[in-house]
Amino acid sequence: MDRTRTAHAETIDNVLAPLIPRGAAVALFDFPNYPNVGDSAIWLGTRHYLQRNGLIGRLIHIADIRLSKATGLPDLPSDCVILIQGGGNFGDIWPHHQNHREWIARHYPGNRIIQLPQSIHFDDPANLERTQRVLGAHPDFHLLVRDHPSFTIAERICPNTSRMCPDMALGLTSYSRPVSPKYAIVALMRTDKEQRGSPKRRAQHPDVRLTDWLEEPAHWMVRLDRMLALLHSRYPRKLPPLQRLHRELYEHLAEWRMARGSSLLAEGQVVITDRLHAHILCVLMDIPHVVLDNSYGKIANLRTAWSTGTEICHSTSDFDDAVRVARHLVSAHQQRNRPLTAPIAEQ
């Protein structure tokens, strides 16, 4: 295994070790209960951290935003350490996540709160000032970030309790490729508010399989999750048994979403992407790939901080250039006469 990958897990452990006292209970907020596979990868990396450090048995509460709003924030022991899901939603691009973490900070002034590694981006300085007031007023809020530009902002918000830390998904160290290549090139590109460039231009390359992972098929686990959320709100006295069932369901949902996303990527002999966790999953599965960036440089910032994918990742700033690089990688692979495990389909 690449030493860099194991080093990421070790760094995560070293950053968090002094922040979680021995024997403390742990609560995790903002479980990623939505189709974005990248956030499920973060959760699975977080779970892996908890397991390898003997903390999974001390996890007394897990909730997504919808459930927290429906049932309210629970009473927690004063020595319970609160973890908030990492990702790329710290700032004002995704305000419901930001409002949720600030609600948690106001509600638990006596608990240690650890914001797991995030990228930070604010478009409106007034929103940054509000966040500084709310989180700065908390006596024990620790802000972990995964890149240097975010750390510069984090030091303004939490001057004495900000730290650099790899993305939690990097703590997985490796992930098996679930399917054999089906297409020469798969382009998994953002279709949300962080996308850059013209979607119409992307469609001009018939040999490229174009997709995203924000839409998921109907599944019994998704329907069960919605039913449990409704029961939570209607029958609060039944909360403990419902929470145990919901916690088990969360695990399966995250694993199912991770499998769905990794399969989308593994269908390509080469991948093009502007999603940070598509890049991370390609690194974990050893898939050659070409990255563009999102609207504020999220991927480049992470790669600069943690040297991810140095041997299998190529970077461009334009989709047409990315296609040219990907075609070259496919051609080079074929010229080396390495047999493919499955026939490559033409689009």
Question: Based on DSSP secondary structure assignment, what is the total number of beta strands?
Answer: 12
Taken from the alpha-carbon principal axes, the silhouette is globular
Q: Cα-atom Rg, whole angstroms?
A: 21 Å
Instruction: Report the uncertain regions.
Output: 339-347
How would you describe this protein?
Strands 1, 2, 3, 4, 5, 6 and 7 form a 7-stranded parallel β-sheet that branches. The chain starts with a helix and ends in a 12-residue tail after the last helix. Helix content is 45%, strand content 16%. It contains 12 helices and 12 strands. It is an alpha/beta fold and 347 residues long.
Protein topology:
Blueprint: H1 3-16, E1 26-29, H2 37-52, E2 59-63, H3 65-71, E3 81-84, E4 87-91, H4 95-107, E5 113-121, H5 125-136, E6 141-145, H6 148-157, E7 162-164, E8 183-188, H7 199-202, E9 208-211, H8 220-234, H9 239-266, E10 268-273, H10 276-285, E11 289-291, H11 298-306, E12 313-315, H12 319-335
Parallel strand pairs: 1-2, 1-3, 3-5, 4-5, 5-6, 6-7, 8-9, 8-10, 10-11, 11-12
Helix pairs in contact: 2-9, 2-10, 3-8, 8-9, 9-10
Protein name: Polysaccharide polymerase
Domain Polysaccharide pyruvyl transferase: 36-296
InterPro entries: Polysacch_pyruvyl_Trfase
